[in-house]
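Entry:
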Amino acid sequence: MGTGPSRRTFLLSLAGAAAVTGFDPATQAWATSATPDHAHGIDFAKLPKLDGELLLPATDLTPYADDYGHIVHRQPAAVLLPGSVQDIARLIRFAGPLGISVAPRGQGHQTYGQAQVSGGVVIDLGPLDVVSVNAVRRTATAQAGALWHSVLTASVAHGLTPPVFPDYIELSIGGTLSAGGIGGASSHFGAQVDNVAALQVVTGTGEIVDCSPTRRPEVFQAALAGLGQFGVITSATVNLVPAPDMVRQYTLAYPTLPALTAAQRKVVRDGRFNWLEGALSPATPSGWTYALEGAVYYKSGNPPNDAAVLAGLGFTGAPTTQDFAYVDFVNQLAAAVAFLKSTGEWFDPHPWINLILPNGATDRYMQRVLAGLTAADIGASGVVLLYPVPNRLLTRPFLRTPDSDLVFLFALLRTASPDTDAIPVPQALAGNRKLYDDAVAVGATQYPIGSIPNLTRADWARQYGSSFARFSALKRVLDPFSIMTPGQGIFRQ
């Protein structure tokens, strides 16, 4: 990380908090009344005041040097709790010329330090959490720190819902839209970024931009799945669809991986499931189990015809069915998360990897992967997911996918619990790197929320392919000081 074109002192004045005087890029430290002043005569009265709060005590900063992965730890110099979007703009305008890195953070659900920053400023978007629904236009507008759970609650009150949710809905709007947002309904609606009507973004120059596909489209397209490289998403307007009352979920067992993926391809083509995933689990004493998990939405009193839904799917054994109220289905992970928090496993390291595989290579690649994985590789509470998405539905240029009509999201969600027989984190990371390299060799891309060590600029250039020149050009325009979200490591030399 550079320190900018000069060694001027970066000054921030807090409303009612005269102890904070500035940031010295020479020492990468914040100056307070108890530390030497390097302001060199700057008039503090001319500095902008914040509507929110700047955290400086080490005890306040410690949580921001961690994330859900619990693998990477980078200590920021300060954390901004913005009281307004203008606070974010003020901070970025000061930080840019001085080369002070800035990283927006939602719920910190990354696994490899993507939203961390060493010696810079983390923007905690949590205070910006307002959600409103326009039932006539069928849209919801949410500030970036709002959770998808909050958007669900506000929307369902009007009989509406976002079309796509992540499996875990206690994630922030800004966080998932910066990554892409793939879920079980992506087989019908694409990623969450494909269902956004408008954004507000504070760019890396500190400009507040209201954008859409027709208004400042270059900012709109850059921010969606842009990994925070071009600025901070501060609010999003997402399209809504009518919400169902009920959901019937089917779990179907398959004897082999090719049998599972053949069934998944069939139901993607005919669209019989509104929601579709696949779960793979180590079997005892050896081998794997393969399950198709599909769901059909319906109105109360008019359940689906099970025989029609299951016709021609070639599963083994008896299917399992379960009915949910729609909200309970979308929030189905709540009980599991509560349990993992109670046992402490939620706070164990999570060296995840998420890859997007081309259809033609999926079966061979996955069979090789599964042959080399054991229960210890995954961990007691780990999960392996594999589910298809039609590529034509994934329209945003920086959500990178293979050149294939159909793609499969492969998610190896490891838990490295130190008090179990799970493999240690370094071994899991080394395994992730090999999985990534082998996947790239067959035309895959990564879904970049996981833990892949030692990614180089060449790796990122391969990830973006022909779009990397455009990605780099927008970086120079929208973040000319290259301060935004360094934890992704895209432009690391």
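The first strand starts at residue 20 and ends at 24.
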